[in-house]
Amino acid sequence: MNYLNKISQELTTVFDTQILFIKCDIEIFTVEEGCGLKGNCFDFSSTISASLKVSKLDIDILDWIVEWHKSTSSGSNRWNKAELTVYKDGKYEVKTWWDSEFQISLYGEDN
Q1: Containing H/E element for 15?
Q2: I need a labelling partner for 106 at 20 to 30 A (CA). Which of 7, 15, 20, 34 fits?
Q3: Is the per-residue pLDDT at 31 higher than 70?
Q4: Among residues 7, 95, 94, 22, which one has the least CA distance to residue 57?
């Protein structure tokens, strides 16, 4: 299953006529297998028009993010942070990276 497609499709459900794209920040909690999700909605002038209301999304979206992480983060490609931008037409861009400072702040070590 392509969890990233599923996540992106779910995010498109919050679009209205004023929203051009949504930019989300994702944080992965590697020990307890959880995640955080926050984001902003941008209008056609690339101005923030609203905060993403995560509570209005499918309750399973956080589980999908964890599964996406499990299926794509390993070895030299491990990551614990991501930026996901989803456009009104359903296309998306994603950047993932490993944030050592974030990992150390949570667990006291960079593992």
Answers
A1: none
A2: 7
A3: yes
A4: 7
Distances in Å between the Cα of 4 and the Cα atoms of 18, 27, 101 are: 24, 15, 25
CA end-to-end span of the chain = 27
pLDDT digits (tens, 9 = 90+) for 88-111: 999 999 999 999 999 999 999 998
111 Cα distance to chain centroid: 21
Neighbours of 32 (CB within 10 A): 8
By 3-state DSSP, what share of the chain in percent is helix, strand and coil, each rounded to 5? Answer: 35, 30, 35
19: Cα within 13 Å, side-chain hemisphere: 22
DSSP 12: G
User: Which strands, in side-by-side order, build the sheet including 81-87?
Assistant: 48-51, 34-42, 21-29, 81-87, 92-97
Residue 53's CB: how many other CB atoms inside 10 A?
Answer: 10
